[in-house]
Write a structure and sequence with these properties.
Length: 248
């Protein structure tokens, strides 16, 4: 049976001189691997070659046997062309796409996450500077973690539940505990990062991300990358573009 859905390209591989294998994230069908026959032709039903972040309405023939679906049509809409005007912005978008690919599963829809991904790409391509783009990426990364049951505990100590205030001098991040721990509890945890006060302030009060400079945001991103590496059991490929000049 033929199906229709809104879709964003997460990955693409050239299959032949005229065709591609494309991984789409769709709103109602989740992640789908698709054979796009003839998509690299100028007069194809997809309007030309499909690239990462190509977005639009797709018509396809699902395959229930675990094999690739077959793309019939893809009405591309050039809504994310702004991503390519700034290398840092593009790297932020590619990092987000990498996480979407890692965390999502075939035929497992997350319509709210799809909408959030569209909003993120829309907002990040118009970011005024690197700091704004990075703050948007951090919020989206936290959203992805929350969507898949790994929301970080940032408003209190994970172990003793004590809340944060100005008198707390030392705060640590523990990946296995899935959040922040206080100085009184940190001795019980092996894997931990001691956070500087500015980084801790951003994590305990996310509204501070909006006014943080790029160097501080890279320090926050370093913590998130550490956590993602522990969860995925490998370092995200795009992480190398965000760890330079990070101050923890």
């Amino acid at each position: 049976m033929i199906a229709k859905d809104k879709a964003i390209c997460l990955r693409k591989v050239d299959y032949s001189e005229s065709s591609q294998v494309v991984t789409f994230f769709t709103r109602q069908h989740g992640k789908i691997g698709v054979m796009a026959k003839g998509s690299r032709r100028a007069k194809s039903t997809s309007g030309g070659a499909i690239e990462v972040f190509s977005y639009g309405q797709m018509v396809f023939y699902p395959n229930e046997t675990g094999k690739l679906a077959t793309l019939k049509e893809f009405d591309q809409q050039p809504v994310f062309m702004g991503l390519r005007r700034n290398l840092f912005v593009m790297n932020c978008a590619l990092f987000a796409a990498e996480l979407m690919d890692h965390f999502t599963h075939e035929n497992d829809p997350h319509p709210e996450l799809f909408d959030g991904f569209v909003r993120f790409l829309t907002d990040v391509q118009t970011a005024s500077d690197n700091a704004e783009a990075l703050s948007l990426l951090i919020i989206f990364q936290l959203t992805v973690l929350g969507e898949f049951g790994s929301a970080l505990v940032l408003n209190r100590c994970v172990n003793c539940s004590s809340s944060w205030n100005d008198s707390v001098k030392n705060i640590y991040f523990c990946s296995t505990a899935n959040g922040l721990i206080c100085a009184d509890c940190e001795g019980a945890f092996v894997d931990k990062l001691r956070l500087s006060k500015p980084v801790a302030d951003c994590l305990t009060q996310l509204r501070n991300l909006k006014n943080a400079d790029e160097r501080l945001l890279r320090g926050v991103e370093k913590v998130i990358i550490y956590h993602l590496t522990e969860i995925l059991h490998k370092r995200p490929k795009m992480a190398k573009y965000f760890t330079a000049s990070a101050s923890q």
